[in-house]
From TrEMBL:
Short name of any one Pfam family annotated for the protein: Lysine_decarbox
Classification via PANTHER family: LOG FAMILY PROTEIN YJL055W
Catalytic activity: 9-ribosyl-trans-zeatin 5'-phosphate + H2O = trans-zeatin + D-ribose 5-phosphate; N(6)-(dimethylallyl)adenosine 5'-phosphate + H2O = N(6)-dimethylallyladenine + D-ribose 5-phosphate
Enzyme class: hydrolase
Gene3D superfamilies (UniProt xref): 3.40.50.450
EC number: 3.2.2.n1
NCBIfam families in the cross-refs: Rossman fold protein, TIGR00730 family
Name this protein carries in UniProt: Cytokinin riboside 5'-monophosphate phosphoribohydrolase
Length: 195
């Protein structure tokens, strides 16, 4: 039986993207987390989908924790109206604090930063650094090419089926949140060493 989630880190674009469905999904995620009493942990920005998910959570009475590197804060990208805003020196610090504060990780559509952040957390689970689930909210099929690549990694022998199952791709937010709340044992990385 799963315990209710208390916090979720959301990784998403600092742009809105070309499909209005992306912004609608960001609103849905922020509002839903707040309504369920789940703290939102995110990158601290006020622009693009990042700002949208934070604004939606705050508008619904939720707690929002932002973590932003000083270089971005100095460009006036930081969101001023959050429950907590942590200004850190590096991207590494940002990701470490987000990983510490969150019980699970969810990616909305975004660019390379979004992809790098969510796959790092997935890797940390695979390596046994933490036992937290990751998920991709597949809005309009945005993450489908990545899901296909993951299948190819398994078929090609670079990823075990068990490690592939550490991450979920789904277009249904209810299903994603239910999956993120399931307990997950720590993983250990196995190697195909040849003599």
């Amino acid at each position: 039986m799963s315990a209710p989630l208390r916090s979720v880190a959301v990784f998403c674009g600092s742009r809105f993207g070309t499909d209005p469905a992306y912004e609608q999904a960001a609103v849905e995620v922020g509002r839903t987390l707040a309504e369920r009493g789940i703290q939102l942990v995110y990158g601290g920005g006020r622009v693009g989908l990042m700002g949208t998910v934070a604004d939606a959570a705050m508008a619904a009475g939720g707690e929002v924790v932002g973590v932003i590197p000083r270089s971005l804060d100095e460009r006036e990208v930081a969101h001023a109206g959050l429950t907590e805003l942590h200004v850190v020196e590096t991207m590494h610090e940002r990701k470490a604090i987000m990983a510490e504060r969150a019980e699970a990780f969810l990616a909305l559509p975004g660019g390379m930063g979004t992809l790098e952040e969510i796959t790092e957390q997935w890797t940390w689970t695979q390596l046994g650094i933490h036992a937290k689930r990751s998920a991709f909210y597949d809005v309009g099929g945005f993450w489908r090419p990545l899901a296909t690549l993951v299948d190819s990694m398994v078929e090609s022998g670079f990823l075990t089926p068990a490690h592939a199952e550490l991450v979920t791709f789904d277009a249904d937010l209810e299903s994603l949140l239910a999956n993120l709340a399931l307990p997950l044992p720590a993983q250990t990385k196995d190697y195909d060493a040849r003599p």
